[in-house]
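Box 3.1 A note on notation
Throughout this textbook, protein chains are presented in two layers. The first layer is the amino acid sequence; the second is a token string describing backbone geometry. Keep the layers aligned when reading.
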Amino acid sequence: MNRNEVALTYLKDADDPRLSPYLHVRERDLVGRDGRFLAEGESVLRVLLTASHHPVESLLLAEGRETKLSDLLTNVPEDVPVYVVPQAVMNGVVGFEIHRGILAVGRRAIDGPFGSVAAALEGAVRTVVVLQGITNHDNVGGIFRNAAAFGVDRILLDGESCDPLYRKALRVSVGGTLAVPFVRGGSTEELLEALEKQGFTTYALSPRGAGSVLTEPFAEKRAFLFGSEGPGLPAPLLARLRSLQIPMATGVLGTTFDSLNVAASSAITLFLGCQRSA
């Protein structure tokens, strides 16, 4: 049940125990939040409240933000508290100057909306992204943002990749990690096996790819595998899968560039791959 009139709780004391989930944000980012995550900023909050399967537990707003967000706050369930504090109090609670003045605590849905990778791939799923060993939160957030923009149905992350619900990844994704359903865990081999059983063709992206994203007639059910920057995907994996590259110009500033940042690579690949099939 949603409420038409938002009940706001105004607090003045940074030591109020009701604000404890928001204490020392950066330090708690490093040690985890016991099945919870922190959403920051209006765009992320909008996705959390309107397009996410993860429930929200509470909101914390700097004074003045409640008026700006009045329409969005009508989506907050009746039993979810909305705390409003002076900006200085908010800064003191979180441990730094938080200019957006908008935070929310979400509760991680158990297993996401699926019980397994196989369940995630069932139904009307055509385009999947697979991430191997990507530990940079900016890159993961950027990939999720691109995936949301180009209509990716699912993202599968191996157990070495970082958590998409880490605050920085979530912020960089502009809520994409809440909007695109994902499953995280296991090995790349296990993820590829599940994809194969469901009839997907997996394309491995690499500067050493045998084909080109510009000319590839993508399969109707396609998965795009991206590896970490630096080492990239291992050679045996590239030999086993259909490997693709993004053609590079040569001689730029006297240097030959052979690759892009993985998030940028995902944008180009998904723009082409999500709109074209054999």
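The chain has a mean pLDDT of 89. The chain has two domains: 8-107, 117-273.
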